[in-house]
Amino acid sequence: MDWSILQQYGPALLKGFGNTVLCWLLGTVFGMALGLVIALLQRYGSRWLNWIIQVYIEVIRGTPFLVQLFVLYYGGPLIGLRLDALPAGLLGLTIYGSPYFAEIFRSGFRGVPHGQIEAARAIGMSEPAIVRRILLPLGLVSSLPALVNFSIILTKETVILSIITVPELMYQVQRMSTETFRYVEANLVLALFFWALVEAISRVGRRLETHVTKHLIERT
Amino acid sequence: MFSIPVFLESFWPLFWAARYTVLISVLGIALGLVIGTLICAARLSPYRWLHRFAALWVSFLRGVPLLVQLLVFYYALPVIGLDVPALAAAVITVGVCASAYISEIWRGAIAALPKGQAEAAVAIGMTPRDVWARIILPQAFTLSLPALVNELILLVKASSLVSVVGILEITRASQAQAATTFRPLEVYIAAACCYLLLNLCLAALGRYLEHRTAV
């Protein structure tokens, strides 16, 4: 083992790490937004729309992320969708995450007691107001643990972006290892980076959960 | 634009390559079930260092991306003198990674079992081994079946990553196909269809097993 290469490649690694965090953050935020839209459409849309959404969810969940990226990045130009690696990767992450997030939101919405919504209707709230003030606050709280869980899974999916040459941490590490032939050190560094990142996110997530679900714990 | 004949033609090499996808997924989940059960037992054991080891195992393997684990295994094993073929490295990595998830699935299922079951078994004089083999594990298996099928589907998709160590499974075959035909869109969509087909079969199998073992 020879760790001196870390000095030379340190800045590149940190930059890659920054890109990894950026991809994860944007991918999660956009994926969640798209997932929320899908879940709401599923709840309020027509039967046909529901059927289309169901097919979308099954197809995205049933195919590997790597294959989806290939379709998007290498197949996209054939139908006029020409994207750089980073935007293509972000779009891919968003699409990949959206059905999972949609399912999480859907089960969160289903957990909202029906009486609450009926009560809101009875006092004459409009449907958008019910969504905004009853469905979203209650549903989001109960789906938070699952949301955190899936965000962590997405962190690890970001390494796959390196295969379509998004310059994130994995990409930098591979460059470093092919230039120096130090595969073991490079990949161990990578493993430790990710372990630290995931542990940090899951700790923050647990804090957030206990904070948001405080009111759910019965006072005795 | 999208050409149907190219799309249909690219299925054959992909079907042929699918046997490696199936092989890696099946061996991976078998290995994962064995190691996962051991890790779960260690996690639940009263010995502190065993418990700690299992917790570390799960945290590390769940915290590190599979692609990274694969490269660590593939490049690190020869350094310590174990020159394994790519296929073995792939199966070991997939199995070890699955073991962390499976041990957590088991743990959840065992925690959900009524405590009285194990207590009653002890009370009528069953040995600890019998309690595990005849009371806890069979019931936990039934309970955890949906989660296990879910994990298996994830594994099939994760097996696309082993293409980076040079195993000719569906993804690798489709890359080669795309490179020779210059029709990436058709070929990769065909690859996606192959995976979808495999996973729909697995989901059907899961529903069947759930139906069979329902109490």
Automatic annotation (TrEMBL), chain A:
Tell me the compartments it is located in: Cell inner membrane; Cell membrane
- Which segments cross the bilayer? 16-41, 48-73, 85-102
UniProt xrefs under CDD domains = TM_PBP2
Pfam families cross-referenced by the UniProt entry: BPD_transp_1
PROSITE patterns, per this entry?
ABC_TM1
Query: Which key words tag this protein in UniProt?
Result: Amino-acid transport, Cell membrane, Membrane, Transmembrane, Transmembrane helix, Transport
Membrane topology per the entry is:
Multi-pass membrane protein
Spell out the SUPFAM superfamilies in the cross-references. Answer: MetI-like (SSF161098)
User: What family, per the record?
Assistant: Belongs to the binding-protein-dependent transport system permease family. HisMQ subfamily.
Recorded protein name is Polar amino acid transport system permease protein
Source organism of this protein record: Pseudochelatococcus lubricantis
Automatic annotation (TrEMBL), chain B:
Q: Does the keyword Transmembrane helix apply?
A: yes
Query: Which superkingdom?
Result: Bacteria
Q: What is its membrane topology?
A: Multi-pass membrane protein
Query: Is Transmembrane helix found in the keyword set?
Result: yes
InterPro entries attached here? AA_ABC_transptr_permease_3TM, ArtM/GltK/GlnP/TcyL/YhdX-like, MetI-like, MetI-like_sf
Where is the protein found, in the record's own terms?
A: Cell inner membrane; Cell membrane
UniProt cross-references to CDD domains, sorted A to Z: TM_PBP2
Q: Which keywords label this protein?
A: Amino-acid transport, Cell membrane, Membrane, Transmembrane, Transmembrane helix, Transport
| Entry's transmembrane regions | 20-42, 54-76, 82-102, 188-209
> Can you give the residue ranges of the ABC transmembrane type-1 domain?
18-206
Query: Which PROSITE patterns does the entry mention?
Result: ABC_TM1 (PS50928)
Q: Which family does it belong to?
A: Belongs to the binding-protein-dependent transport system permease family. HisMQ subfamily.
The name of this protein is Polar amino acid transport system permease protein
